[in-house]
Structure formats: C-alpha cells, structure tokens
Specification:
The chain is of the alpha/beta class. It has two domains: 2-124 and 312-325, NAD(P)-binding Rossmann-like Domain (Rossmann fold, 3-Layer(aba) Sandwich); 127-307, Dihydrodipicolinate Reductase, domain 2 (2-Layer Sandwich), CATH 3.30.360.10. It is built from ten helices and 14 strands. The strands form three sheets. A six-stranded parallel β-sheet has the order 2-1-5-6-8-7, with helices on both faces. The protein has a six-stranded mixed β-sheet with strand order 10-9-11-14-13-12. Strands 3-4 form a two-stranded antiparallel sheet. Helix 1 packs across helix 10 (309-325) and helix 5 crosses helix 7. The radius of gyration is 20 Å and the shape is globular.
C-alpha cells in the first residue's frame, strides 16, 4: 500500500510520521511530499530514509492514501488531482470541511458515513475534534440545545514560527513574529482573521463543524477562541444546555466509557486535565464536571487534548486505518 504525506516537513506532518509508525499501517511505500525547495531532502520513516518528492511526482505514483497537511491553498489545488488517480485524500486544512459533498470525519463518531466514492475526506479543526468527542455521547443521551465554549489554545496550533516566537521571547531574543503581539506572559483573543459578524474564522469553524459532524443543525454553538503561551495541547471551557435532565454520576459514567475519552475528574485530589499531561497522547481528557447552578439542565466541563495528535495527526491516521480495516483501501 502506497501512502503519500503532503506537508511532511511541517509540525503536523512530523507528528503524522510518528503516529503512522506507532500504529503500524501496512505501508509498502512511503512517499513524503513537500514544497519545491524541499524536494530531494531526506526524511526518516520506520528506520528507512526517503527522498522528498514534488506533489506531481507523488500523483504519478498513484498512492492509495494521501494525508494532507500543507495548508488550504495547496489542498484546494492538489487534492482533486490525487483523487482523480484514485487516491483517498485525508485533508487536514479547512479547504473541504464545509463542502456539502465532502465527509467531515471524527472516526469515533461518523467514520461509517465514508463510502468508496469519498475520495476527499476532511479532517476537522483541532478544537472542534476534542469538543465533539465529548459532546456526541451526551447529545445522544440528553439532546444538546446550546453550547458555549471558550478555548485556550497552544502556540503549536499556529506552527513552528509561533513556537519559535514564544521560545525567543522567553530567552529575551528578538526574532520573527508569528503574532502581531508578544505571546509570552500574554493572552491573545484572536485565532485566524475576523469576519463581518465580529467572530474569527476559528470560532465559526467550531460553530459550523460541530453541527456537520454531529449531524444536527439544531445545536446552537457560540465560541470564543484564545491563544495562550502554552505547548502540549488545547484546553476548552464548555457550558452545555440540554433539553433533558441529567444525572452527574451518569454523565461521568457515559464519558468514562466513551472511546477515545479519558475521565480525569477528582477535584478533591486536584486531578483534572492539563496540556502538560495531555502532551503526546491520543486521547481527549475531560474533567471539572459540574452543574451550572444558574441555568436548568446545564453542565460545565473542561476538555483538553494534544492538538497535534488527536486534533490533527492521530485523527487523520485513524481515518486511514478505517479505510484499510473496511476494505475501502486494499492493503
């Protein structure tokens, strides 16, 4: 099975290589793809050295699967070209997420919607993935009316340039700025560009993608997304209003049994999810579970996940695993 990785040299691409190695997909030929300036450079995969090739070369090799993490413009241009030669494209950008003809997939929730003709499959936004993994089982049981979410997002979500900015600021070194403002000892209440309604693109991604993944346009979502000087993962404060009454013990039991979710909810012993403990892990962690005492049938909780793992690389590789396990791709 030939597998291409488009954007192999980026932060998410590097994480995808780790996850592919860990999950041991039956890959017979690995095809790393990057920009023209990187063509010919070497990259390691499963203890073997591979040369980076151009997208056009990769297309000519007709891989069974292509994982994309190279930005929206590259995905818009190149994903259809891969699809035309029969490749299943799993795209990590925002290019295809809200396309009505494309699947937006979190495997634990809706992988079963993927069919043989779905040659371009969208990987959701990192902050959406971790939230819906917790929301979905609760929605099935109690039916969600409204969600209010505030995010606390790692600089790794922006990329290498942002990580370098944070590290330079901590060392007192002047360097290239990923953000308009300093990020160390600061909080920036803007992720992506502002839209006409006053929300950022990141905030509207969470609104729209949640409805699409969970298959319910009736869920009301409002979001505020914030960048903080942290590595390791994104955190979210989530307030949920249900149509039906709930029991806190039952809520905890449901989440404890949810595939891909880890319950960390022992406030008496100061046990709760944090980015530093989610770093490098594939699961989504949830805690601080409590009633909203100002509103009936409402719940507060705290969700944390490594945005480069489940929020990006792991989710994409899990989709690839589903394609193989269900015979959509022949291994």
């Amino acid at each position: 099975m030939k597998l291409a990785l488009v954007g192999a040299t980026g932060l998410v691409g590097s994480e995808m290589i780790k996850v592919l190695e860990e999950r041991q997909l039956p890959i017979t030929e690995f095809i790393p793809v990057a920009s023209e300036r990187s063509v010919g450079k070497k990259i390691m995969f499963n203890g073997k050295e591979y040369s980076i090739v151009s997208a056009q070369t990769a297309i000519s090799m007709k891989p069974a699967i292509a994982l994309f993490s190279a930005g929206g413009s590259t995905s818009s241009e190149m994903a259809p070209k891969f699809a035309e030669v029969g490749t299943f494209v799993i795209d990590n950008s925002s290019a295809w997420r809200m396309d009505a003809t494309k699947r937006l997939v979190v495997p634990e929730i809706n992988a079963n919607t993927i069919g043989p003709d779905d040659r371009i499959i969208a990987n959701p936004n990192c902050s959406t993935i971790q939230m819906v993994l917790v929301l979905n089982p609760l929605h099935k049981k109690y039916k969600i009316k409204r969600v209010v979410v505030s995010t606390y997002q790692s600089v790794t979500g922006t990329g290498v340039k942002a990580v370098d900015q944070l590290m330079n600021e901590r060392k007192g070194i002047k360097g290239e700025m990923a953000y308009k403002y300093p990020i160390d000892l600061n909080v920036i209440p803007q992720i992506d560009v502002f839209m006409d309604n006053g929300y950022t693109k990141e905030e509207m991604k969470m609104v729209n993608e949640t409805k699409k993944i969970m298959g319910d346009d009736g869920i009301k979502v409002t979001a505020t997304t914030v960048r903080i000087p942290v590595m390791g993962g994104h955190s979210e404060s989530v307030n949920i209003e249900f149509e039906n009454e709930f029991d806190l013990i039952e809520i905890r039991n449901i989440l404890a049994k949810t595939d891909g979710v880890v319950l960390q909810d022992d406030p008496s012993n100061q046990v709760y999810p944090m980015p530093m403990t989610s770093h490098g892990k594939d699961e989504v962690f949830v805690g601080r579970i409590r009633r909203d005492e100002t509103q009936p049938k409402s719940l507060n909780l705290w969700i944390v996940a490594d945005n480069l793992r489940k929020g990006a690389a792991t989710n994409a590789v899990q989709i690839a695993q589903y394609l193989v396990a269900n015979g959509l791709v022949k291994a």
